[in-house]
Amino acid sequence: MKFLALLALLFISASAEKSRFDNYRVYSVTVENYQQLQAIQYLEEHSDAYNIFESPHLNADTEILVPPHKFSDFEELTENLGMKAKLIINNYQELIDEEIKPSRTPRVDAQYDWVSYKNLTEIYAWLDEMAAQYSSVASVRNIGTTHEGRPIRLFTISKKSGNRGIFVEANIHAREWISSATATYLINELLTSQDPDIVDIATNIDWYIITNVNPDGLVWTWESNRNWRKTRAPVSALCFGVDVNRNFAYNWLTPDETGNLGASTTPCTDTYAGTSPLSENEAKAVESVFANNIGKFDVFLSFHSYGHYMLHPWGHTRGHSVDYDLQFAVGNAFRAAVQAVNGINYAVGPSNTVLYATSGTTPDHAYGQYGIKLSYTIEMRGNGNYGNYGFVLPPEFILPNAEEVVAGLIGLVNSARTYGYLRN
Ligand SMILES: [Zn+2]
């Protein structure tokens, strides 16, 4: 009893306190052999101190957040393993403080913008305003409720009947703020732009957009821990959160040919897949959009950060999908159109082989379960010739990122049309 009371107290104090990352460093390590891979995977599963930003894989770089009390351990570890480690962020807290500075300045007008990041309340209020202002073509509705009682909302735009559809989900991973900022920018463009290319895709395609699949997670990143990825549902005596992007039904927790699960069965890890397929309210909400609109969507897009990737199925297997050529060609049109704007070069290809093994993701589910061939994960800006920021992309990059992604979508639509998709 006493222990439980103490535990409850611990949780109360933990939720009141904002996590700080003063002098935490981010290192980029290059995983070159199996021994190094195993060591990083071990840290990912077992260490509370380190945070591995994305799952490590062979012959690629992985970013790791290292607290000050682990600096010497980490140095020893990389030395013993003969692993190259490059310091890319010297003080993670400094980056976090810089990120929200513009939104701390009192605003003279109440105009929504893309020069600062918006919190969930601001995003939801703006969605309401846009739906009211453009009520003849746009609407917003609740499609589910999170563990903490927040609505999950679907914004739709339809300017004429008979259109084929594109379904977009964003911010399924809480710390990837740029993903929902880009989704709101897309909505704004579709409703207000006079650019003929945007008028075309806004008029001749129906858009279904969930700007925030994971509202509880987003609120947690604003109020408690900027580095949080999952939901906030309790999953064990000590841990919270399911990775919704590992919770979808198609080949849930299915290992690939190398035995890689592409998700975790350990509740405390960042890629915890949940207790069963579609166990989480957030996944159920997204599922309801697929299930209620069978045959509607030619394209499904999942907005993430970071790394400049345009990923198509599969994640759960190293084998090529039967629609590989089509998926690559349309993905490549997105890549070319993005690059034409600011020179950012995305890598295109199947999730599993271009990035790493994943199972239970929304794009695999959209394609495998619902037959949406043009299903993609878009990993936006984070590190590049504009700087190394990871998930904490400074607000001055919201606009360039959003502009190049929207240009990419125009390229994607035009390419899809040449193959007979998105035509009424
Ligand atoms: Zn993500």
UniProtKB/TrEMBL annotation:
Record keywords, A-Z: Carboxypeptidase, Disulfide bond, Hydrolase, Metal-binding, Metalloprotease, Protease, Secreted, Signal, Zinc
GO cellular component labels: extracellular space
GO molecular function terms listed in the Swiss-Prot or TrEMBL record: metallocarboxypeptidase activity; zinc ion binding
Name of a matching Pfam family: Propep_M14
CDD domains in the record: M14_CP_A-B_like
InterPro entries recorded: M14A-like_propep, M14A_act_pep, Peptidase_M14
Co-factor requirement: Zn(2+)
SUPFAM superfamilies xrefs: Protease propeptides/inhibitors, Zn-dependent exopeptidases
Catalytic residue positions: E379 (proton donor/acceptor)
N-terminal signal peptide: 1-16
UniProt keyword annotation of ATP-binding present: no
GO BP annotations listed: proteolysis
Membrane-spanning ranges: none
Domain of life where this protein originates: Eukaryota
Keyword Cell cycle among record annotations: no
Record localization: Secreted
Domain Peptidase M14: 116-416
Function: Involved in the digestion of the blood meal.
Entry similarity comment: Belongs to the peptidase M14 family.
Protein's name in the database: Zinc carboxypeptidase A 1
Organism, as annotated: Polypedilum vanderplanki
